[in-house]
Amino acid sequence: MNSEFTKELTLFDHLRELRVRVIYSLATVIVAAVAAYWRYDDVISLLYRPFAVLESENGHSLYATSLFEGFSVRLKISILAGVLLAFPFILYHVVRFVLPALRERERQFLGGAMGAGAALAVGGVIYGYCWIVPLCVKFMTASEFIPSRVGLLLNFEQNIFYILQFLLIMVLVFQLPIFLSLLMALNLLSRHVLLKYGRHVVVLLFIVSAVITPPDLISQLAVALPLVFLYYLSILAAGVFGWGKGET
User: Per the domain annotation, does 66 fall within a domain?
Assistant: First the structure.
C-alpha cells in the first residue's frame, strides 16, 4: 500500500513539474513574441534583404495586395520569432525534465547531439541565407525567364514566408549527421552499410537538392555538396566514437 502511494506521489510530482515547465516555456514564448513585435522592423529587414536587389525606381520590390496583409505578416512573424527565440529555453526545460531518467552515457550523447545539432542548424541558416537564397532570387528573376518589358510584382507575405520556409528546410536537412549518428549509436545502422550504399545516397541527396532549389546547376551543387560532406563526416565521427560496428 505504501509502495503504491509513493509511486502515486512520484507520478503527481512529475506531472506538477511538467506543468510548471510548460507554463514557463509558454511565458517565454509570449515575452519573446512581444519583443519581436516591438523590434519588427529589424526582423523584417533581415527577411527583406534578399529582395533588395530587385528594388524598382520607387524603392519597392515586394508589394502587399490586401489591406490586412501587413498586420497579418507582422503578427505571424512575431509569433514565429517568439518560438524561435524561446526555443533554447524550451529545450532546456525538456532536457531538465528527461535528464533524471537517462544513464550517464545517454546524457553525454544527448549533450553532444544538442550541441552539434544547434551548430548545424545555425550553419544551415547562415549558409542558406547568405548564399543559397540570393542565388535563388537572382536565378528566378533573370532575364531568361522575365523579359525586360515585363514588370515584376512580388507578393509581400508569400515571398517573405518563402524565405522562412527555405531556411527551415536548410535547418532540417543539415540535421542529417545527427540522425545518422543516432541510428549508428543505437546499432540500428552500420558504417559498412552507409559506405556500401554511399553512391546511392549521394544520388538521393542530389535529387533532394534539385527539389528544394531552382533548376540551375550552381544552386543544386551549393546544397548537395555540403550534404554529401556531412554524410561522410557522420560516418567518420561514428568511427571515432566506435558506433555502427555491425557489418550488415
Answer: yes
Q: How far apart are CA 104 and CA 24, in angstroms?
A: 27
Number of helices followed by number of strands (H, E) in the chain: 10, 2
Kindly state the cell numbers that stand for 170.
536548410
* Radius of gyration of the chain from its Cα atoms, rounded to whole angstroms: 23
Whether 176 contacts 234, CB under 8 Å: yes
User: What one-character DSSP code corresponds to residue 9?
Assistant: H
Q: pTM for this structure?
A: 0.84
What angle do the packed helices 133-140 and 217-241 form, to 10 degrees? 160
Domain span at 48: 2-116+143-168
Least confident of 30-44, 103-117, 136-150, 187-201: 136-150
What does the pLDDT read at residue 135? 87
- What's the number of domains the chain is made of? 1
Question: Is 132 domain-assigned?
Answer: no
